[in-house]
Amino acid sequence: MNLVPLLRFVTVVGLSGAIASVVVGNGAFAQSTYVPIPIPNTAVVPAAQATNQTFEPAGSPTTALNMAGYTATSGSYTSVSGSWIVPTVSANTSGDVADATWVGIGGVTSNDLIQAGTEAIPNSNGQLVYRAWMELLPANSQVVPLTISAGDAVSVSITQLASGLWKVSFDDATTGKTYETTVQYDSSLSSADWIEEMPVEVGGIVWLDNFGTVDFTSGYAIKNGRAVTVASAGATALTMTNSAGMTTAEPSALDATGSSFTVARTDAQSSPLALTGSGIAAAVDSPYSFVTNGGSGFAGGGSEVRIRRQDGRRGYRVYGRF
Length: 322
Known about the structure:
This protein folds into two domains: 6-284, Jelly Rolls, CATH 2.60.120; 285-322, no CATH class. Helix content is 0%, strand content 46%. It is built from no helices and 26 strands. The protein has strands at 6-7, 11-13, 19-22, 63-64, 67-72, 77-85, 97-106, 113-122, 128-136, 142-143, 153-162, 165-172, 177-184, 192-197, 200-201, 207-208, 213-223, 226-229, 236-241, 247-251, 261-265, 273-276, 279-282, 288-292, 304-309, 316-321. The protein is globular and about 45 Å long.
């Protein structure tokens, strides 16, 4: 099956299937001291100084159907960075599965999001490929010209150079290769995000792969002009669940430095999301488990989102139309 480009808007969806807020995101980790991309401020506020602050931002989500990690929403954010090891997807997962690891600014309480990271996604032959990417909503994600492999130690940073001007940097410590670019983007500066995600596909779905664990380290941001850790940014943990309320990916508590945590995949089946003409909704209707946008073999053409049976019986259901 030929997959169309993946949309990565981290769509925070309530368990009822209604969209609570639309955000826009995944991975593993390196050594706890690995910070190849310095943030543009040395006065980092450590976790120890953050213990006297209130960290629970009003209205910040705590569960989502397609992302897990940490988000900070109380303040104005002009830089975010993080490091991880690109996870090796388990051999028992193949076909239409994917995961992505990223850092970003915006998206939790706003519709804008600038994000960058790594991912494992199926190619046109259904084989998983690893790559680096970036995305500026509402535009589709774009592949970054940096070769990425499972097990690579990478760092990614996004920094505002001036109003509307951003620098996006990638550093692969395993290969010694780097990539850097500047982009124009109007951001609300409303959140800093460190995320492991199940991507949303245009015209279909992919399931969350078995990425094992993703260890984020060196998680920093610039909040209100000061360099902060994930903890001292006041970030809230975000757990990925399926439509039955079962945890599919869960972040650990922050470590003593306040800048590192792990996202672990559970055995629970994910609940993929379908992008339809009316928005994004959970595509969970057993035994119908695979969503496609039609094509040969289906009556009615390719403008419908359809759920195909996985139990060997023939038939499908129309889930939505573009």
